[in-house]
Amino acid sequence: MAIKHSLEADTEYVQNKKTVTEFSSSNSIASCENTKDEYKNSITNTEVQQSEYTESINPNSDFNTKNANTLQDSIQDTKKDEITLEKNIDSIEVPNKVESIPLPNTTAVSVPSIQKNNTNTSQLTGYEFFNSILKSSKLFLAPMVDQSELAWRILSRKYGAQVCFTPMFHAKMFSNKENRGYFNEMWQTNEQDRPLIVQFCANDPEHFLEAAKLVEDHADAVDINLGCPQHIAKRGKYGAFLMDEWDLIYKIVNTASKNLKIPVTAKIRVYKDLDKTIEYAKMLERAGAKILTVHGRLAEQKGHKTGLVDWSKIKAIKESVNIPVISNGGILYREDVLSCLKETKADGVMVAETSLYNPIIFDNSLSADESIPPSNNSCVNGLVKNFDIANEYLDIIKGGVETKISYVRSHLFKIFKPSLPNYPDLRSELAASKSIEDFSNVVDKLKLAMQPEIESSKFDPYNIEIDEFGYKIIPHWYCQPSIRKEYNKVTSSGDKPLGRNVVNAE
C-alpha cells in the first residue's frame, strides 16, 4: 500500500472532502467509499512510516524533534478526518435505482507493450524453474512495501540484482473488481523487468488466486508473504501472523499452484524449534511451493528486538527439502553474500534493507577477484558516492518511469542517511520537496556541500578500517548499510558487545 507523508495526506484529504460534498447522490457512493479506503490505508501506512522517518533525523536536533511531533499530530488529525469522511459517506442519500450508477471498469489493466507469457511453467519442478526461468540466479532483491517499485528495481538490476520482487501487494485490494484504483496504482512493470516475482499478502485462498491471475501473464512467479512481522500484518492477519495456521497456508499455496500457469513461491521466517521449522518448510513444499525464501529470524525479532540471524536454520531447511532455498538476512556488505552462500548452502541470497541504503550491494558480489570491473565506473572497491546513486535513480524516473513522490523521498532519505545530520537545512529541504526537480536540486546542493570534505579526505577505499564491533568505517558521502549500533550496548553474556555478524541491519 502506498505510503503517504501525513502532511500530503492531509492536503489530499481536504481536496477529496470538498469533492465529496459536491458530488450528487447518483454518482458519489462508489467514489466516497474509494476515498474512505484510501485514507484508511494512508493512516495505516503513515504509522508505519513514522518509525522510518524519525530514524532518519537527529534526535538531538530541535528542528527534528518538532518534525517528529508534527508527524504524530498529523497521524491523529488524519484519523479524525477519516471519521468525518465516514460520516459524510453515511449521510449521502442512496437513490432508488442504485443499478443505474455506472460501475467502474472491472477488466484487469495490462501493459500493451509487454509480451504475455505463452508457456505454462507451473508444472516445472522447483529446480527446473530455478535453472531455466530464473537462470540459476544468486542475487535477489527483496519485496519491500513501497520501496521495491519499478524505478528501484531498474536501478538494482543495473548493479547486479538478478531477480527482483515487487513490493508486497494486498491480494484482496489488488483483486477488487469493483475498485481498480489500487491495482492501477500499484501494478507497474516493463519488458526489461524480468525475471520478476510478484508478492502478495493474503489470508484467503481465493483472494490470493484472483490477485495472482491478474499478473501471471507478466511475471515469472507469485509469492505469498508469510514473513512480515509488523503490527500492520497482525491487524490484517497475514505475513508471519499466519505461522500457526498451517491448514490455511497449505490451502492458499495449493489452490494457487493448481490454478496458475506460473509457479508459487513463499517467503517465511523460522521458529525457535528447529524440527518445527523443518516441518513447516516441508509442508510448504507439499503444498506446491517451488522456491522458499527463508528469513533467519523469529516472527518476534523486529525493530529494537531484531537481534540475531540464524543461518544454521536456513542450512537445515536447505538440507531437508527438494526445492531451491533462498537465504534472507544478515547481509551488510557484498562479501557477506559469499559468506552466506558458503554457510547456508542456499541456492541464492536475498537482500532487503541494506540494498535501500546501498543499492550497489549486488555489484561484483559473487567475485573475490577485485580485478573484475564493476558495473559502473563510479564504483571503487564496492563503494559509490551517495549523490551519484541518487542522481542515477532520479534519471531513471526522469526517463519516464512514473514514481510516487513519497517513494522518492523515502529512498533519498535512506541513501543520504549518513550525510544528512551534517546538513540540517538541506535535510529540511529534502523533507519539503514535492517534485523530481526539487529532489534534483537538493541532491546537487548536497554534492556541492560535500566537495570540500571529499577533496581533503585521506580515506583509502582499498584500505578500509574496521571499528571495535567489526563494522567498516566509511565516510558519510559513500552509500553504506544502516547499522543499529544500539544493539552493541547490550550483550548476550553481560561482558562484551555482540558486534559484527551477530547483530546487523538486515
Automatic annotation (TrEMBL):
Annotated Pfam families: Dus (PF01207)
One function term, GO molecular function aspect: tRNA dihydrouridine synthase activity
Record CDD domains: DUS_like_FMN (cd02801)
Reaction(s) catalysed (UniProt annotation): a 5,6-dihydrouridine in mRNA + NAD(+) = a uridine in mRNA + NADH + H(+); 5,6-dihydrouridine(16) in tRNA + NAD(+) = uridine(16) in tRNA + NADH + H(+); a 5,6-dihydrouridine in mRNA + NADP(+) = a uridine in mRNA + NADPH + H(+); 5,6-dihydrouridine(16) in tRNA + NADP(+) = uridine(16) in tRNA + NADPH + H(+)
Listed cofactors: FMN
Alphabetical UniProt keywords: Flavoprotein, FMN, mRNA processing, NAD, NADP, Oxidoreductase, tRNA processing
EC numbers, comma separated: 1.3.1.88
GO BP, one annotated term: mRNA processing
InterPro entries hit by this protein: Aldolase_TIM, DUS-like_FMN-bd, tRNA_hU_synthase_CS
SUPFAM superfamilies, per database record: FMN-linked oxidoreductases
Residues forming coiled coils: none
Every DUS-like FMN-binding domain range: 141-444
PROSITE patterns, per database record: UPF0034
Family to which this protein belongs: Belongs to the Dus family. Dus1 subfamily.
Name of the molecule in the record: tRNA-dihydrouridine(16/17) synthase [NAD(P)(+)]
Lineage of source species: Eukaryota, Fungi, Fungi incertae sedis, Zoopagomycota, Kickxellomycotina
